[in-house]
Amino acid sequence: MSFNVIGKSVIRVDGLAKVTGKAVYPQDIYMDGMLYGKTLRSTVPHAYFTLDTSKAEKIEGVVRIFTAKDVPGHNAHGVLFKDHEVFCAQKVRRIGDPLAFVVATSEKIAQKAVEAIEVKYEELPAVFDPVEAMKDEIKVHDGTSNIIYHYKLRKGNIEEGFAKSHVVVENVYKTSMVDHAFLQPEAGIAYVEEDGTIVVCAATQYPHFDQLEIAEAMGVPAEKVKVINPAVGGAFGGREDITLQIHLAIAAVATGGPVKAVYSREESFVAHSKRHPEIIKIKTGADKEGKLLALEAEIIADTGAYASWAINVTRKSGIHVTGPYVIPNVKVDAYAVYTNNPFCGAMRGFGATQVPIATEQQMDMLAEKLGISPVEIRLKNAFTKGSETANGQILTESVPLITCIKKVADALEMA
Amino acid sequence: MKKISLTVNGKLYQVEVEEDMRLLDLLRDKLGFTGVKEGCSEGECGACSVIMDGKLVTSCLIMAFQAEGKEIITIEGLQKEDGTLHPIQQAFLEEGAVQCGFCTPAMVLAAKALLDKNPHPTDEEIKEGISGNLCRCTGYAKIVSSVKKAAEYLNKGGK
């Protein structure tokens, strides 16, 4: 049988446009009579605030300044929980929360007006340590516990597993917050079509969901919102949450549009999510031969001020903390916790990237204690076809991990 | 306002520029060369790179008035009018060195600036040649192999 694509090296469809510089990213769209938008963002992590826009409004070239009271529908968005505000109404929960969106005839004027808005903060105690945050003494969102998710995994009996273990290793690992740093900063343009359809053109990973979020915030049916996704300059999970889409839609409808906004690199860093930093407390036990017998882990994922994908990310960490190894006795508790840090969401691996830092170092330490090679201990425990994961999944398809480890070991000449 | 003249991709332009306008803004906003990308605005990412008088420069760190009398090459100047790609562009396509594409125009120009001066670069020299240009997607391996392939094409007298 022959295929057109499978087994062949195919030139990507958008490759030609990209090597010639003709691919259109949202910042490359210029429309007649377009206005420019700039966002005012919070500079403190936790505070009540008031705004005085009167001076900024008087600057020549400023068309309008939008704040929470200008959101026509729900002043809320978020992929799982609607815990983000389109514009904060009274309270900020992190540095970088959006407070206002200035629309002006030029980018320079918009920037000047953003700086002319007076913000008065009444600062509140903030919490930056997720372990502290779990005590709920300082609440990031009123009326809700900071612990927004608890993933619980139980398999076998860990007490028995550890009692039978010849070697046990216990440690705490911490991973850091990471930014996607995609090369194309957020940008977009919005306008209104003759029949009233709101068009938002922005680089996104989630156009169909953006459409719903824009519609809810605008108080219009979804079919009155069109989202156009032009070339996307990298994303890696960082474009799964709303950034400027709703601000642009509000501004385009109120001014007649088109309205364009392009974030600076600095604003991009504060506007989108990060990878969840995790504190991973882990205990691993193995028998004399190096067969794993028990694993106990507690994972605390700091989701910052907003949930974004915290539930899915934390669950994935909880599942993957066993590594790709068969372990008969497992106990995992993984928590997602609000703090006043930058918010965390999707980023490459979605929770599976953090945990190997702990799991695999544990494997190396067990091997060292047993006097066997790091390769040997992995080969003894690796998933193969038919293995059962700690959360009960039977792996029925291709599981070529052992082949892979052997090939790598041969290449490294350490087998 | 100041009136300057400069050559972009072989064509002479006479334009009025504001004192605080960057070469990047002139090329994108005024002349429409949107293949020039803005990634960081501080000369770190290299996405705005263009070739000015034979040297690769970051156009976000050059004021528009400094381009007076200069010859600039942007990505738009590489493809022939009949649509034939420059061998570097062809090599990038064939090797799969293009992913999100935001770094690509400047990366191709970085390769051109290198190969124009050094037609037989070693891997180390290629890595140094593109060291001012960040790519977040590819991991660079395919970009390096594209530049090697492009060198072969150019040394054979173009493809």
Question: How do the helices and strands line up, and which of them pair or pack?
Answer:
The complex is a heterodimer of chains A (415) and B (159).
Chain A: H1 15-19, E1 35-41, E2 47-52, H2 54-57, E3 62-66, E4 91-92, E5 98-104, H3 107-116, E6 118-123, H4 130-133, E7 147-155, H5 158-164, E8 167-174, E9 187-192, E10 198-202, H6 207-218, E11 225-228, H7 245-255, E12 259-262, H8 265-271, E13 274-275, E14 278-286, E15 292-304, H9 310-320, E16 329-338, E17 344-345, H10 356-370, H11 374-381, H12 401-412
Parallel strand pairs in A: 1-12, 10-11, 13-17, 15-16
Antiparallel strand pairs in A: 1-5, 2-4, 2-6, 3-5, 7-16, 8-14, 9-10, 9-12, 14-15
Helix pairs in contact in A: 6-7, 10-11
Chain B: E1 2-8, E2 11-17, H1 23-30, E3 49-52, E4 55-58, E5 71-73, H2 87-95, H3 104-117, H4 123-129, H5 141-155
Helix pairs in contact in B: 2-5
Question: Whole-Å distance between the termini of chain B?
Answer: 45 Å
Work out the strand percent of chain B. 15-25%
| Share of helical residues of chain B | 25-40%
| Rg of chain A, alpha carbons | 25 Å
> How would you name the CATH homologous superfamily of the largest domain in chain B?
Beta-grasp domain
Rounded to the nearest angstrom, the radius of gyration of chain B is: 15 Å
GO molecular function (chain A): iron ion binding; oxidoreductase activity
Organism (chain A): Thermosyntropha lipolytica DSM 11003
Pfam families (chain A): Ald_Xan_dh_C, MoCoBD_1
Protein name (chain A): Purine hydroxylase alpha subunit apoprotein
